[in-house]
Amino acid sequence: FNENTVLVAVIDELISPLNRRFLRSSCTETRFLYLWQQDRRVALDNPAEYTKRVAIGQEFFATDLNDALQNAPSEQQAYRDLKLIEDGRIRLLRGDSHGAAVANVVAGAEPGTNLLFVEDDGSIVEGPPADDVHFLGVNLHHAVVHDAAGIFTQAFALIAFVRLVQYITFLEQQAGRLLPVVLNFSFGLSSGA
Questions:
Q1: What is the spatial distance between Cα 85 and Cα 83, in angstroms, rounded to a whole number?
Q2: Would you state the pLDDT for residue 91?
Q3: Cα-based angle 158, 160, 164 (whole degrees, multiple of 5)
Q4: Model confidence pLDDT, tens digit, residues 97-128
Q5: Closest of 134, 78, 89, 92 to residue 109, by C-alpha
Q6: If we measure between CA atoms, which residue out of 39, 158, 185 comes closest to residue 102?
Q7: What is the pTM of this model?
Q8: If exposure means fewest CB atoms within 10 Å of the residue's CB, which of 5, 11, 19, 82 is most exposed?
């Protein structure tokens, strides 16, 4: 991490961590350091895939995501290799899901460019290099996302927030300093209101 490093944490659904807007300037590595796929079914017959850090789903770290990206002929195949689209989540492939759109608005950029921000007066200001902005993401469980009453959303979002804080704390310990963090949770719980 350098003096421009910013961590961007997004809690949403169907965040596509290998989308071009989230790649480093080399286009062979993602800017995602961490992704927790809450509804990923882990094959219990393959204990190597299982992690006890989270109670549900599976965590992916930059090395997992980058290995898949570098060893697959396409973004789509990389998602298949990670088993992130085995349930037919085609929107993940296209990158047009709510989660991908939110992450893109918060800190998406063409590889090798700087982030751009719009000021209150409408002027555009150049931000830090995209390579200095690192993502952390949690894809909420699909049953929670489609729960119109929002009964379980809060519990799943809370455990996502706690896990992100744990991982951010770990990264800060590695860096030996506090890091600037942006957290986005763009969900409304007003169904039926």
A1: 6
A2: 54
A3: 120
A4: 888 889 999 999 999 999 998 899 999 999 99
A5: 134
A6: 185
A7: 0.87
A8: 5
Q: Which of 186, 187, 183 is nearest to 9 (CA)?
A: 183
124, with CB counted inside 10 A (0-12, 13-18, 19+), is exposed
Strand partners, 11: 138, 185
The answer to whether 34 and 59 are in contact (CB under 8 A) is yes
- DSSP of 34-90: EEEETTPPP-TT-GGG--SSSSSSEEEEHHHHHHHHHHSSSHHHHHHHTTSSTT--H
Query: CA-CA distance, 164 to 33, in Å (whole number)?
Result: 11
The C-alpha atoms of residue 183 and residue 80 are separated, in whole angstroms, by 28
Using one digit for the tens of pLDDT, what is the confidence trace for 116-167? 988 999 999 999 999 999 999 999 988 887 776 677 888 899 999 999 999 9
CA distance 48 to 53: 13
Would you state the structure tokens that stand for residue 92, as one six-digit string? Answer: 């993940």
> If you ran DSSP here, which 8-state letter would residue 23 be given?
B
- pLDDT for the residue numbered 52: 57
Q: What pLDDT score was predicted for residue 55?
A: 75
Asked if residue 137 lies in contact with residue 180, where contact means CB atoms within 8 angstroms, the answer is no
Q: Count CB atoms within 10 A of the CB of residue 175.
A: 13
The span from the CA of 105 to the CA of 40, in Å, is 25
> Residue 170 corresponds to which amino acid?
F
